[in-house]
Amino acid sequence: MIKGAQALPQKDDTNWQLYRRLFVYVKPLKFFFALSVFGNIVYAGASAGMVQALEYVIEVVESPTDESRLLLPALILALFAMRGIGGFLGGYYIAYVGRNVVHTMRVEIFDSYLKLPTAFFDNSSSGHLISRITYNVEQVTSAISDAVTVTVREGLTVIGLLAVMFFANWKLTLIFLCLGPIIGLVIRYVSKRFRKLSKRIMNSVGDVTHVTQEIVTGYKVVRIFGGEAYEQKRFFTSSQYNLVQSLKMEFTKMISTPIIQLLVACSISILIWLALAPGVRGDMTGATFVVIITAASTMAKPIRQLTQVNEKIQRGVAAARDLFTVLDAPPEEDRGTRPLAEVNGELVFDQVSFKYHGSESAVLKDFSLRIAPGETVALVGRSGSGKSTVANLVPRFYEPVSGEIRLDDVALSEYTLRSLRDQIAIVTQHVTLFNDTIANNIAYGSLDGANREELIDVARKANALEFIEAKDQGFDTEVGDNGISLSGGQRQRLAISRALLKDAPLLILDEATSALDNESEKVIQKELDKLMEGRTTLVIAHRLSTIENADKIVVMDEGSIVEQGTHTQLLALEGEYAKLYNIALEDSH
Length: 589
Ligand SMILES: Nc1ncnc2c1ncn2[C@@H]1O[C@H](COP(=O)(O)OP(=O)(O)OP(=O)(O)O)[C@@H](O)[C@H]1O
Ligand SMILES: [Mg+2]
Prior knowledge:
Layout: H1 15-26, H2 30-62, H3 66-115, H4 118-122, H5 126-168, H6 170-177, H7 180-217, H8 219-224, H9 228-275, H10 278-281, H11 286-298, H12 300-328, E1 347-354, E2 364-371, E3 376-381, H13 387-393, E4 402-407, E5 410-411, H14 417-422, E6 424-427, H15 438-442, H16 452-461, H17 465-470, H18 488-502, E7 506-510, H19 518-532, E8 536-540, E9 552-557, E10 560-565, H20 567-573, H21 576-588
Parallel strand pairs: 3-8, 3-9, 6-7, 7-8
Antiparallel strand pairs: 1-2, 1-4, 4-5, 9-10
Helix pairs in contact: 2-3, 2-5, 2-11, 3-5, 5-6, 5-7, 5-11, 5-12, 6-9, 7-9, 7-12, 9-11, 9-12, 16-18, 20-21
The structure holds adenosine-5'-triphosphate and magnesium ion.
């Protein structure tokens, strides 16, 4: 089985605390909830009433009168009408409450995904993150709906029937009740098992989603590298695990029902046996006797339903526990209070060390660098030397383990996250596009007020206008999942356009032009050079020709700076940079 996405430790709340917390979601809907409970009470009352009516029926049949000939049919009609109305109110309004709770919880989980720190996503599989919103939330609602519909309706029916019995002959009823604790024990065992199985089923749904998602997004690699058998096996394993656990659940459910029914039947048999004993029977009439036996046997069905509802509730509890763990997870740390409005642009890394969550070795070691306002600094170095990591620390996607990063002499953590990020335009190494139009991809998020002229302007600067206009629908072309219908270079140019449109004082370009041909790169480079003027810029590039003009070039290796200076200074040094440069030079000949 694939490792579950339990990125967070599960909190060990008691079930009671969980129920209380779930109730908070129901609270705003308490009117509808009450309406549903009321409906169920009416339903249960009518059901018990029907049994009680039997006594009357038998008496009337034995000695009919003109009056009772009218009253009896009217009573039966009234009871059925009550049960019908009660059933509707009980069923519809609890669904109303349940669907609303799903909606609220979904929105809350989604919102917390928007706020959770980068490390949370690094450690979770997207399949599990998705199935939490699609599957787990549904489990919680069915639990709430069923808990109310069945527990209240059937529970009250049982109580009503017991009351009917009690009034008919209390001694018999007490004897009948003696079997209750045994039934209780069975239910307890079954609940425990249900809870355990539910958690496994939930995780396996996450696995199924996860594997499916990977082959859907990576289908080309799967086919070329002959991954079909591997993926098939992986999927089969997780789906089979789900199958086995679900079957265990069904088994427990199905076996517990007849056991409980058998126990009820035992009670009824004992009841009849006793009822016919002269001492207990007393002066009970035939009609009363019929009522007692009918009430006892009518109870079998609601009791069965009550035992099954437990499975749903336990599923819901397991799901709720998982959802609350996410909701309780600490969001990205945002304790800064300073708004960042006017940026001068001095960016200082002061002995910054960093390691990724869960990894042993430091990725950045005592990294110190000063970028003066408006200056352009280029990071170069071998793959894996930590360049993108440096870039990730500026918008505070991660926090340094030690050391400090300061913007205009203030630690980054003192600014509010929103205002800090508002001042940063970034082109990431892996371009992200949304399944939307080109226009909406460029003017994404807070940029969506941009007008067409502005879009055309940035697209021209990013050398993207030509290809956009060549598309049938121009800016309104849909780009598909993560821009699948565009070439790598086109995607990069859209990402650059997006960054240009943001027009922020801090600019980070992580391999922003790596997918472009030399010619397009030159065209964009000119525009980017213009753009960098007056902005604090961090540019990362493998192709050294693109960064020759940088104010400072920093050569990194294994998380530390090994050399820094201008292009000419570094060449004169004849060190690492000169080596890299000469290799590049040879390649181009
Ligand atoms: N999210 C992550 N979790 C754990 N380790 C990571 C993560 N991202 C990167 N690393 C590790 O950190 C190191 C530095 O990665 P980084 O992406 O900063 O390198 P880079 O210099 O940008 O490389 P490249 O030139 O290939 O883009 C690598 O060893 C990488 O394996
Ligand atoms: Mg990188």
